[in-house]
Specification:
Elements: H1 3-6, H2 9-16, H3 20-29, H4 42-52, H5 57-68, E1 82-88, H6 101-114, E2 118-123, H7 127-140, E3 146-152, E4 155-158, E5 161-165, E6 179-181, H8 182-189, E7 196-202, E8 206-207, H9 214-219, E9 231-236, E10 246-250, E11 270-275, H10 276-284, H11 291-303, E12 312-316, H12 331-341, E13 349-351
Parallel strand pairs: 1-2, 1-3, 3-7, 4-8, 7-9
Antiparallel strand pairs: 2-13, 4-5, 5-6, 9-12, 10-11
Helix pairs in contact: 3-5, 6-10, 10-11
Length: 352
Amino acid sequence: MSLLQTISYPEYQKALALNIESCEILANLANLKLNFQNSKKPGEILMKTLDRHGYSVQQYRQLLTTALNTKTILTYYRPQSKVAILIGNDKYSKLTNLVTPTIDCDSLASNLKRLGFIIITLKNLTAAELKSYLRRIFQLIPEDSYTFIFYAGHGCELCNTRCLLCVDCPTEDISVEHCVTENWLLREVAICKPELCILILDMCRNVLDRFTNPKIYKAMTAVEDYTIHRNLLVSYSTQSSEVAYELLQIECSTTIDCTYEVKTGDTERIMPGASLYANALCTRLVENLDVSSMLDRVHGDMESCIKRQRPIKVQCGVAKRSLYDPVKGDWQIILNKLKEELENEKDNCAVF
């Protein structure tokens, strides 16, 4: 007797209630080529197809058991390519040097590479250099791609504008020539019309003093306009007027069980670490979630850590997208173009 004739009514009702993702897994296990997209009754389609192919109740139950033990990787979309641009500034000529930005970039690079991203790292650049690199990169990223942009380094905020402070930034009388604004970044990345753009700013958002930095305040009256092509997620590692923390490990002959103040000479004993935000982000990247849900979990981790940073997420566009989504284009061609464009810039730039 056929599957539909012998299956119990409660089992059949559960089968009808299966969602599209579960039906896709069962169909793949049964080697059936079915398209459940836009279907209001995926469970009914699955059961009728299994019945036509002669599956028994025992075989259907076995498929269910196997599906429960199968790790599912949901596909929300197939972008043309996936490109991660990881920017780290830690060696400043005038401002205090930082420890973790380039380490953060390297940690993210290894994690995102495993997810199929083309990786571009940009380290310790002036504002003019960074803008030049980014313009060239955005010109080569094909439309309908995923762009993941991460910045770690010094930063500030004024007139509701976030600014990435580059390595040539002075301590006072800062001008727009010393920084890259968030608005400029979003305006330039829109050139390649990404299906998804993720911008993460892991930096302090201290407000600059107006009297010691008059030039940049005057320039903020002409801040760049930008447009959003499709789906945009912006994450700030901390709130306005707040600092972002680095996580350091220091080789020490005595046990430290309280807050430790870094002293002169300690920089030579600093062990590799990460910023609090980058550490939480790398931990959550292994989870197959849509990007918005993944960032929510990262922010939840941040709020429960010892140094209570309160990250902020801004989202435009509600379509679910995942960093695990497979690409449909030839990523090797795009990688070769990027390598060719940046082959003479190996001191501060890597493409792989």
